[in-house]
Input
Amino acid sequence: MPLNPFKNIGPGFIVAAAFIGPGTVTLCSIAGVSFGYTLLWAVLLSTLATIVLQEMAARIGLMTQKGLAELLRQQLEHSIWRQPALWLIMLAIVLGNTAYQAGNIGGGVLGLEAIMGPLTFEVFGLRLNIAALALGLGAFIVLSQNSDKRLTQILTVLVLFMSLSFVLTALIIQPDIPDLLAGLVQPKIPEKSIWTIIGLIGTTIVPYNIFLHASLVRKKWHSIDALPQLRRDTFWTIGLGGVVSMSIVICAAGSGITQINNAVDLAQGLSPLYGSMATILMGVGLFATGMTSAITAPLAAAFVACGCLGWSTDLNHNRFKLVWRAVLLVGVVLATTQIKPITLIKLAQVANGTLIFIIAALVLWLVNQQTLMKKAVNTRVQNAFGILVFIVTLIVGLKGISGVLQILN
Output
């Protein structure tokens, strides 16, 4: 019987696929160009914090066999905070993912255009991006597989493809190792870097990934015996995502570019120094990040919406399909016609900023419930790490809300 390399792969690859999106790639690129290797410690910190939070969420999913939205609906049944909490979650994740979906697809388009050139055409006076339609169709086909295993396999290949592209590009750059290590282990906050640091943490600790992870774990494993495998899956895949983020910072730091607006600027800037191969690898990596996020964002929105509303979270259920198809369709339309839903995005950012520390607190609360978690309840050490992560998410959330409100005013 042939060996199946995907047999033991868990949902961690899907979570890694979700948190390395076009926004992360762009922000890491800007961090590298503006501050060199100095902010690598922030990427490392946010990766470690994500591992702590995602492990707790995954453990909750394993022990309760419920998604987080479904579990919160149940645990807050008699609380006055039930409806406000569920509606905040719906607003932040379902509305947020709908708003950001155009950016996910647009990120994949930018990757293709870095390799192939402009792909926008005018049809009956309306400018349409053909690549956005193709990417939307690709995401639809993947999400229509009606199989957890097949979805995991496809996203695993895309994540490995993406990782290889960025890591190889970083190796081509040939970074200065002493400076790189100093940036990792010596936390510094250069002038005007605070918002970049907050952004790096905020794009790594993603609220919808917490819900996505808990929902997917229960479809893969069903008893406490799987806990060691769950932890290995979480640590390695989230760690891989952190390595990808660091690789992008390294690429940008060694590019010699002095100003950048997005990852395509970085891809084009690498070409004179390192040849067309660096540009192609960056373009492929950006395409993969856009594609993986375009697949996982509608999936997460469907899990959250159905959990909050008490609907089935089975991938084959009609209401579940309705949610992810609606999110994907809106994203494709916005990306194809190049309409930017600025107000919607700002609203989603405020909701996400509020949600990130509330969810961290709720996860800590749930993972300490003896009746729910039994032998997998949090230890004192795990609680100490969890409280540290809560403090980090609180700072990031409040700063993020403050920044968006200032922009709105």
About this structure: The first strand starts at residue 120 and ends at 123. The chain has 17 helices and two strands. The chain has a mean pLDDT of 82. The radius of gyration is 20 Å.
